[in-house]
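Sequence design from tokenized structure. All designs in this work follow the same two-part layout: the structure record, then the generated sequence. An example of the structure record is given first.
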């Protein structure tokens, strides 16, 4: 049986302040990309129980853990990169920007960051990449939860600003109801216009026919971990 996230990766650093970093929303058709950064207390008794990859947790559990993470962590931060920044920078570099903003928002600045994935983003501290990190590192798991909850909350707010798309439900991701809304209403100001599904909708074609969720002309999605 898998033991779940631990603090072994964090403890490998000597005399360092280590944060976990993860993103949410790299692949949706609409909305910003978000990132979380968390420095957990060295004392494991101060860790929220049940930390895990945000994708393995339901919304209620994530929201409960978000409160505990913010209350118990040494420091935490959340950052976003907007749809406009995604368009101008591409999704890879916009993700790095969101991560930088998350780290810069922390009350305590880390010396090292454990980043989920295999791409070494340029961040304001030393970076170690960890493939599948949100299932291996408690601090990365905590960061994934903050990033996911913050973005989900924002997309629920956008559902009120741009009604009819169902953002509160699918959060901008691939979904039949989202595809139908795109065909009927056209893209909203927070849709990613360079994405293949959105381009298909503008041509009157089913967005679900796109190969992958996030096809950008300048950066194929499969080039991004």
């Amino acid at each position: 049986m898998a033991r779940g996230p631990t603090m072994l990766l964090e403890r490998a650093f000597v005399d360092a302040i280590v944060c976990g970093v993860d993103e949410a929303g790299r692949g949706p058709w609409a909305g910003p990309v978000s990132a979380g950064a968390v420095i957990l207390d060295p004392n494991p008794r101060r860790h929220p129980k049940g930390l895990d990859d945000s994708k393995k947790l339901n919304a209620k559990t994530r929201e409960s853990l978000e409160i505990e993470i913010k209350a118990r962590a040494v420091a935490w931060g959340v950052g976003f990169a907007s749809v406009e920044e995604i368009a101008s920078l591409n999704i890879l570099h916009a993700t790095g920007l969101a991560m930088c903003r998350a780290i810069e928002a922390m009350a305590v600045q880390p010396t090292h960051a454990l980043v989920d994935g295999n791409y070494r983003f340029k961040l304001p501290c030393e970076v170690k990449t960890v493939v599948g990190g949100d299932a291996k590192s408690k601090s990365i798991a905590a960061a994934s939860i903050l990033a996911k909850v913050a973005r989900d909350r924002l997309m629920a707010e956008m559902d009120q600003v741009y009604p009819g798309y169902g953002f509160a439900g699918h959060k901008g991701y691939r979904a039949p109801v989202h595809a139908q809304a795109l065909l009927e209403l056209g893209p909203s100001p927070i849709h990613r216009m360079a994405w293949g599904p959105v381009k298909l909708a503008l041509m009157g074609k089913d967005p679900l026919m796109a190969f992958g969720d996030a096809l950008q002309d300048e950066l194929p999605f499969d080039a991004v971990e």
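The chain has two domains: 8-156, 158-218. We note this feature because it recurs in several other targets discussed in the main text.
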